[in-house]
Amino acid sequence: MPNTKIKIAIGSDHAGFEYKEALKAYLTEFDLQDFGTHSIDSVDYPDFAHPVALAVENKEFDYGILICGTANGVAMTANKHQHIRAAICWENDIALLVRKHNDANILCIPARFVSEYVAKEIATTFLTTDFEGGRHQNRIDKMSC
Ligand code: RB5
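A: This is the predicted complex of the input protein with D-ribose.
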């Protein structure tokens, strides 16, 4: 039987390592591949954000999840990729709207500013909400420069 699970590339820096591990254990209905980091030792977030962004951009994965302290470093890095729409989410309704309206393809979680409970809730919402298309597609088509 083919593997029909949604494929997720997940990565973090040291600040996001513990939430990454928690999400891997929690999101069992998805096919997650861990792009590191693999400990709480200090690392540079672009070394993990670029590989995740590239894998999503190349359509090897359906979505990405990136986690760092504020989510800004990983989001800024991922959004350098032409076909990436990385969205920082700190509450559930934002995760809902970045999927419905922005067709975000990478979720960025600020580990130092949300609880683990909220991080799990955000991830579930992001991964199970469809893009609405229509007028939102027109706006997305105008993003590139
Ligand atoms: C690491 O200390 C921290 O700077 C990083 O996780 C992130 O918040 C950067 O945007």
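Residues 67 and 99 are 18 Å apart (CA to CA). The longest strand covers residues 7-12.
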